[in-house]
Design brief:
About 40% of the residues lie in helices and about 15% in strands. The chain has helices spanning about 15-25, 40-45, 50-55, 65-80, 105-130, 155-175, 205-210, 220-230; strands at about 5-10, 30-35, 55-60, 85-90, 140-145, 180-185, 190, 220, 245. The radius of gyration is 18 Å and the shape is globular. The termini are far apart.
Length: about 260
């Protein structure tokens, strides 16, 4: 990313990939607003930060599926800075399995869509003015999933939400360009067990978990954080409306049973 300080907003910031993204943006010298619905996890995120880094870290408790929460959160950023340079839409319900489709309750389907897709729309809607007031590299990075392209059984709600994010990404890119670039990342298997609040030391993954990946290992949160940093930088200035798949090559792997 540019060496000049950026004002960033990361949703779903307290745990998982979002937590890794926050760490990377802070390490790059940026100011990061960390939005999450989990107040305790946000406290855990900031507790161990160096005081100088803590000064560049702000927390916001909000549910991205609530327009009132999103409006209130983005208004806090506007009052403090009057601009944003980067929005990372990452908040989501991460468990992909919903059970048999015939037993999937409409309310459970709707909750996944509300958080994983509508939340991205609401964040984009309420940050556009701040991004337009930002720097020349103003960008939105949406977190999709390799499950937008391939599925396991009984994952309909999650897969639909992630496929929707990819379509929302290219639609926003057409609507918001040239002042705001909009791209997405589709992670595969990312081991974020060490990125959870009070998670302790995770058990090691199996050899087969790593070996099935063409890259030879399961992904880590910092792998995705690095892609965020690239998409937010001037090095990606000619990219918009794209989805970068970061899955260790798994979506390109032809699998047959022998």
């Amino acid at each position: 990313m540019s060496t000049s300080e950026k004002i960033c907003l990361v949703t779903g910031a307290a745990q998982g990939i979002g937590r890794a993204v926050v760490r990377r943006l802070l390490a790059d010298g940026h100011t990061v607003w960390c939005l999450d619905h989990d107040h305790a996890a946000l406290d855990d995120l900031t507790a161990g930060l160096d005081p100088a880094v803590r000064e560049r870290t702000q927390t916001l408790v909000a549910d991205v599926s609530s327009e009132n929460d999103v409006r209130t959160a983005t208004e806090a950023v506007r009052r403090e800075h009057g601009r944003l340079d980067l929005v990372v839409n990452n908040a989501g319900i991460s468990g992909p399995f919903n059970g048999p489709i015939e037993a999937l309750e409409l309310a459970d389907w709707q909750r996944v869509i509300d958080v994983n897709l509508t939340g991205f729309f609401l964040i984009a809607k309420h940050t556009v003015a701040l991004l337009r007031a930002g720097g020349p590299d103003a960008a939105i990075v949406n977190m999709a999933s390799s499950r937008a392209y391939q599925s396991e059984p009984q994952t309909e709600a999650y897969a639909a939400s992630k496929g929707g994010i990819e379509a929302l990404t290219h639609a926003l890119a057409m609507s918001l360009g040239p002042s705001i670039r909009v791209n997405a990342i589709a992670p595969g298997w990312i081991d974020v067990r060490g990125e959870q609040a009070d998670d302790g030391e995770p058990a090691p993954l199996r050899t087969v978990d790593h070996d099935q990946h063409p890259t030879g290992r399961v992904g880590l949160g910092e792998d995705i954080a690095g892609v965020v940093a690239f998409l937010a930088s001037a090095d990606a200035a000619f990219m918009t409306g794209q989805t970068l798949i970061a899955d260790g090559g798994m979506t390109r792997k032809m699998i047959y049973e022998h």
